[in-house]
Design a protein that fits this description.
Blueprint lengths: L1 H10 L3 H67 L1 H12 L2 H13 L9 H11 L3 E8 L4 E6 L4 E5 L7 H6 L5 E2 L3 H7 L6 E9 L6 E10 L4 H4 L9 E5 L5 E4 L12 H6 L3 E4 L3 E8 L4 E8 H52 L14 H39 L4 H17 L3 H18 L7 H19 L3 E6 L15 H11 L7 E10 L2 E8 L6 H12 L10 H12 L4 E7 L3 E9 L10
Parallel strand pairs: 12-13
Antiparallel strand pairs: 1-2, 1-6, 2-3, 4-5, 5-6, 7-8, 7-11, 9-10, 10-11, 13-14, 14-16, 15-16
Membrane topology: Multi-pass membrane protein
InterPro entries: Bact_2-comp_sensor_kinase, HAMP_dom, HATPase_C_sf, HATPase_dom, His_kinase_dom, Sig_transdc_His_kin-like_C, Sig_transdc_His_kin_internal
Enzyme class: transferase
Length: about 600
């Protein structure tokens, strides 16, 4: 009941309140919809931006580790490029270290190449050149000995007899991938730092291509942070570098070092690039060169924090927009409603007979103009009543009396019929025909029809022409060519007959016997094209130009009914594409083209 009462009091007869409510509803729905789509778009853009930042960082890590892999390989390749170094290292790996030292001294004393003894120095220099190298180890397959170089350029020789160590078995496995350091090699090298990864490269004898040992380089994974410094502030989530077996080579969160990665099965099942699960977004990059995997993980709660900030901002802005979008139109509508009610109140006063009421609104907008027009109308109404109204009443009484005194049309029809029959009885058949045509023409002109068709207008033209054919007898002929299918087409009354009359008055040559008039009607697309052609006097170019200007001018009050009236009525009723067009040559005749609309007999009333 409360809602119905509120509707009756505030909405039922209150147009402005309905408009305000409708506008507010549309505004709120529009702003909410726009805010939702903006939130969705901006949230997705924020997620994509975070993923792009992480992927860029992962690409840098991937390229960095690939570079370290190439750097480790280049140590051995650089050794092969120097034959003396290669020979010295080959000798060291195939003989006891004491023999290598003794052989080097003998070569030096004999004046041999000094680079024979520079093999270890070569490796020491490479360790110094790369600050991320923590240890560089050379393993001798024949001697089962591990040579360890640390950051202090100290050489440590560790025997690795198979009876006391698993290092020979470990080194026998062919692996060029980037992996975690083997626990037995760690123990031999004394390297227990969890932030290490190793790259192993086989060493072959340059002459026989026989594998004589292995190069193992331990890199510090902390060096990866150097390439992440630029993105560290914006980087979200965790970046991991994993070996194929799940070993953690690098962990930006520092929580998985020293233990296998627990979600390796999920990582292995992912394709390249991004994916998502219930907990977050996962991005995966693989490196074929070192056979390691770079994984980026961003938990959804971190991304949702950014989305919540975006949502709060959009909600605040949307609320402000809705508030002002409703407040400002409400104030405007209330003001317009107040002024409109004022106009209604004063119009009711006038309705009740108070012709002295005036609306006090001096503004220049539409309502102000309505108020001024209303006041001016009341002023003119008062003047009209005082000066004209009484005289108009007398004039109307006079006209009514005159109308009552007019001859009844039926009396005229009957009288013409009596005259026609009297003429026929006296043998004046031509006079009878003229009277019959005149009576039928008069009946057609004064008869009020709801729908006036092409057939009616052509019949009026025929009756009119029959009168003049009887008058001029053998001097004048006419023809009407038209498709009977167009008979029911509605046209404007008196749209053709004045053209025929114009020819009879101005174009007919009474002294000649070959006067002809042809009326042709056809349908051209959506128009009805009527052409009236005669062989009369024709029109001079100067007069034709005057007539064309005359046709386009406005019709003046009291002017006789003719071509200009037809042209103006057609253009006003049907548009500029309809109307009359004249063409003529002096002495040859005139052609009048009339363009009417095709309405296919639609319901309507004749104008």
């Amino acid at each position: 009941m409360g809602f119905r009462k509120m509707y009756r009091n505030y909405l039922k007869n209150n147009l402005f309140m309905k408009l305000l409510l409708l506008f507010s509803l549309i505004t709120v729905i529009t702003i909410i919809s726009f805010s939702y789509f903006m939130y969705h778009s901006m949230s997705q853009a924020a997620i994509n931006r975070e993923l792009d930042i992480q992927k860029k960082a992962m690409t840098n890590v991937n390229n960095y580790l690939g570079g370290k892999y190439d750097s480790a390989q280049s140590i051995v390749f650089g050794l092969y490029r120097d034959s003396s170094l290669a020979a010295g290292i080959s000798f060291m790996l195939q003989h006891p270290f004491q023999e290598y030292v003794q052989h080097g001294l003998e070569q030096y004393n004999l004046g041999g190449n000094s680079t024979w003894n520079a093999g270890l120095q070569y490796f020491k220099n490479r360790v110094e050149d790369d600050e991320d190298i923590r240890s560089l180890m050379l393993y001798s397959v024949d001697q089962m000995t591990l040579y360890v170089l640390d950051r202090n350029r100290q050489l440590k020789i560790v025997p690795t007899n198979a009876a006391h160590s698993y290092i020979p078995e470990v080194m026998a496995l062919d692996s060029k991938s980037v992996t975690l350091p083997n626990i037995w090699v760690r123990e031999a090298a004394g390297q227990w730092d969890n932030h290490l990864y190793s790259i192993r490269t086989p060493i072959n004898d340059k002459q026989t291509l026989k594998n004589i040992g292995q190069q193992v380089v331990y890199f510090s994974s902390d060096g990866i942070w150097k390439i992440l410094l630029n993105d560290k502030e914006e980087l979200k989530g965790t970046i991991l570098v994993l070996s194929p077996d799940g070993g953690v080579l690098f962990d930006s969160s520092d929580q998985y070092y020293g233990k296998p990665y627990p979600f390796m099965d999920q990582v292995s099942s992912l394709y390249e690039n991004s994916g998502s699960n219930q907990s977050g977004y996962v991005t995966k990059l693989t490196q074929s060169k070192g056979d390691f995997i770079v994984v980026g993980i961003i938990p959804k709660n971190e991304l949702e924090a950014s989305s919540r900030r975006i949502g709060s901002t959009i909600f605040m802005i949307s609320s402000i927009c809705i508030f002002f979008a409703i407040l400002i139109p409400s104030l405007v509508v209330m003001n317009v409603s107040k002024r409109t009610n004022q106009i209604i109140r004063f119009t009711r006063k006038v309705k009740q007979g108070d012709l002295n009421a005036r609306i006090p609104d001096e503004r220049e907008d539409e309502l102000g103009q309505i108020s001024r027009s209303f006041n001016e109308m009341i002023e003119e109404l008062n003047q009209y009543i005082d000066r004209v109204y009484k005289a108009e009443i007398k004039q109307k009484h006079t006209e009514l009396t005159a109308l009552q005194a007019r001859v009844n049309p039926h009396f005229l029809y009957n009288t013409l019929e009596v005259i026609r029959m009297r003429a026929i009885s006296h043998g004046a058949h031509d006079v009878g025909e003229m009277i019959y045509s005149l009576s039928a023409l008069f009946r057609s002109l004064v008869q009020q029809k709801k729908i006036y068709t092409l057939k009616d207008e052509l019949e009026a033209c025929r009756l009119y022409l029959e009168l003049f054919q009887i008058r001029y007898k053998d001097k004048f002929t006419y023809s009407i060519e038209w498709d009977r299918k167009l008979a029911s087409t509605r046209i404007m009354k008196m749209s053709l007959q004045p053209v025929i009359e114009n020819y009879i008055v101005h174009g007919l040559r009474s002294e000649c016997t070959d006067n002809e008039l042809h009326i042709r009607v056809k349908q051209t697309e959506e128009f009805l094209h009527v052409q009236v052609e005669d062989n009369g006097n024709g029109i001079t170019p100067e007069r034709l130009s005057e007539l064309e200007s005359f046709l386009q001018a406005e019709e003046t009050e009291g002017e006789s009914f003719g071509l200009r009236s037809i042209n103006q009525r057609l253009k006003l009723l049907y548009g500029s594409r309809c109307g009359l067009k004249l063409s003529s040559e002096p002495g040859k005749g005139t052609v009048v083209d009339i363009w009417l609309p095709m309405d296919d007999g639609k319901e309507g009333y004749d104008v």
